[in-house]
Write a structure and sequence with these properties.
alpha+beta; 8 strands; 4-stranded antiparallel sheet; Nucleoside Triphosphate Pyrophosphohydrolase; Endonuclease III, domain 1; 4-stranded mixed sheet; 2 domains
């Protein structure tokens, strides 16, 4: 029995029961794949269920407001994924007659959709023979072949995609893609792989050479940049000041408390409050500090409770004065969700 046959036989008995499994609706598969691009199954399943309950099809997503979509996404991170989905849903509604494209090349042209997601949709929903290669698949293939080319290098990505394409089942391409992902997630795990129950054990060169712990190989990680963000908690009666983030930085389109960047002492922080927002804090007290790690940066986030006279007119600033009891209607990045709620 070859690897592909052994894998599919194993999958028929051990496939994970996931909410989107069995669906051939490209919308459902698209949503699931976008959510789980940067999110573990156990963390993201609840988000998937809430998202698809509120926005069950392409038309409902296309008609949704951005704030609602971001609120459903709140806590998942990488918010550009949600904005790209909304853009794509509206593009399909307005330019493609509301019909999700059915061929790999057209799917891959959609905003926010790369080779992996396009391969998943094309194979699972439309039976097209395109191998989908994610982190789990890289791990399985690198161990199967004992290949030490870094999986996060351009050469490695080309090499492992070619190998996956050689192995994929012509009759069951969607099942093959889901099966190899399941194998990586449940058996061929990063640490302590369960080699004794792996359907590919007798074919695996890493097992034969005892190289499981050394594979896959990754290129040396780049050092993350460090940033300090000072958030100001300022209330007026039962209302609270917030603002919407704009520009191309992190958390674009989400809401936050007034924020002053930089590792500042109290006098510098006061000066920046005056410069940025037009009010001078009186009493100021740091009440919390957290570290938040992103893929490219480490954030030192400091929360200050301050007292100040809020300007009568906020029209020249990005600040909004909203009822504190209503702030759950606004999408916030996770560090602020953890602080505010």
């Amino acid at each position: 029995m070859n690897f592909t046959s052994a894998l599919l036989s194993w999958y028929d008995q051990h496939a994970r029961a996931l909410p989107w499994r069995g669906s051939r609706d490209p919308y459902i598969i698209w949503v699931s794949e976008i959510i789980f691009q940067q999110t573990r199954i156990e963390q993201g399943t609840g988000y998937f269920l809430r998202f698809t309950e509120r926005l069950p099809d392409l038309a409902s997503l296309a008609a949704a407001e951005e704030d609602e979509v971001l609120r459903l996404w709140q806590g998942l991170g990488y918010y550009s994924r949600a904005r790209n989905m909304l853009f794509t849903a509206r593009h399909i509604r307005e330019n493609l007659g509301g019909i999700f494209p059915s061929d790999f090349d057209s799917i891959k042209k959609l905003k926010g959709v790369g080779d992996y997601t396009a391969s998943c949709i094309a194979s699972i929903c439309f039976g097209q023979v395109h191998a989908a290669v994610d982190g789990n698949v890289y791990r399985v293939l690198s161990r199967l072949s004992a290949e030490k080319t870094p999986i996060d290098s351009t050469r490695g990505q080309i090499l492992f995609k070619k190998l996956a394409q050689q192995l994929i089942s012509l009759d069951r391409p969607g099942d093959f893609n889901e099966a190899i992902m399941d194998l990586g997630a449940t058996v061929c795990k990063p640490r302590n792989p369960a080699c004794s129950v792996c359907p590919a054990m007798t074919m695996c060169k890493a097992y034969e050479m005892n190289l499981q712990a050394e594979l896959p190989v990754k290129a040396p990680a780049l050092k993350k940049s460090a940033s300090v963000m000072n958030y100001l908690l300022l209330k007026k009666g039962e209302d609270i000041l917030i603002q919407k983030r704009e520009g191309k930085g992190i958390w674009n389109g989400l809401y936050e408390l007034p924020m002053v960047p930089g590792d500042l002492d109290t006098s510098a922080l006061v000066a920046e409050c005056i410069s940025l927002y037009g009010f001078e804090p009186g009493e100021m007290k740091e009440i919390n500090r957290v570290k938040h790690v992103l893929s490219h940066a480490e954030l030192d986030i400091r929360f200050y409770e301050i007292k100040a006279n809020i300007p009568v007119s906020l029209s020249e600033t990005r600040l909004l004065l909203v009822p504190a009891k209503s702030i759950d209607q606004y999408p916030f990045p996770k560090p602020l969700v953890d602080f505010l709620f």
